[in-house]
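Dear support,

Our group has been running a series of protein-ligand predictions, and this particular one with guanosine-5'-diphosphate is the one our PI (initials K.S.) wants archived with full inputs and outputs. We had some confusion internally about which version of the output was final, so please treat the block below as the authoritative record. The input we submitted was:
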Amino acid sequence: MNLVIVIPTYNEADNIEAITAELLALPEIKCDRHILIVDDDSPDGTGDIADRLAARNPGKVSVLHRHEDHGLGRAYIAGFQRALAMGADIIVQMDADFSHSPQYIPIFLDILEQDPTVDVVVGSRYVAGGELDAHWSWWRRFLSWWANAIYTRLILSLDVKDGTAGFKAWRRRALEGIGLDRIRSNGYVFQVEMAYVAERLGYKVVEVPIYFEDRRIGKSKMTVPVKIEAAFRTWQIRMRHQDLTPADRMPEAQARTREVSAGTV
Ligand SMILES: Nc1nc2c(ncn2[C@@H]2O[C@H](COP(=O)(O)OP(=O)(O)O)[C@@H](O)[C@H]2O)c(=O)[nH]1
Ligand SMILES: [Mg+2]
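Confirmed final output from the archive:
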C-alpha cells in the first residue's frame, strides 16, 4: 500500500525539516510512505529547504513548487492531483506546524485498514476527547467554534463535527470520486468544501478525536481575505453542490484519464 502525506507550506522554514524528520521516523507505519511538500514560493525559503530534504531522501520526499498566487485550497488540489498521479492508495493531509501531531497517522491508517467501508478519517477537535490548545487566543477559538458549530452547520447542515478540520486521511477512491476539478475554494474554506462534497456524495466519514496544539514556531497564515472568502464561499458551496448525490461521483476511469494528463512523478 502506498501512502502519500501532503503538506502545504507557506513560510514554514523553521518547521518543515522537523516535521519531515518526525514523519519519516514514525515506526508504526508499515506501508510505503512518501512526503509531498507543496510550497507556494514561500518568501522565507521554505521551498529551498524542502528541495534539500528531497535530495537527501530520494523516493521518500518530493516537492511541488507552485508559482501562482498562494492559497491553501489551490495548493492542496495540486498536491492531491500529484499524489494520485504517484499512485497513492491513501492520502494524508496535514499542516507543517505540528498542530497536527504525526502520532495520529497510524491511528487513521488502522481505521482505514480495519473498516474497508470508511472513505475518509478526520482528525477532529470537536468530538468527545478532541481538544483545542488553551494557548489559542480566545478570538481564534471563538472563530473556529463559530465556523463549526454555527455558520457551516446552519448553512450546510454538515454531519461532521469538525467541518474546518485540516488533518485527514483519504482513501484514493474518495478523492477520485469527488473530482478535484469540482472544488473551487482558494483558501482555508477548501476544507469545508471538501467536507460538504464528500458528504453529499455519500462517502463514509469517521471522526477521531485529536488534541490540536497551537503552532510552536512561526505565524498563522489565516488572513482577513482568507476569512472573507470563507464567509461568502460557504453560501456558494451550498448553491453549487447541494444537489449532488452519490450518483454524481466521478467515474474512476475519468479520474484516471485526468491523472495521466496531470503527469506522473
Ligand atoms: N502552500 C500553501 N500552504 C499554506 C498556505 N496558507 C497556509 N498554508 C499552510 O497550511 C498549514 C496551516 O496554516 P496555518 O497558518 O498554521 O493556519 P492555522 O493553523 O489555521 O493558523 C501550514 O502548513 C501552512 O504553512 C498557502 O497559501 N499555500
Ligand atoms: Mg497552524
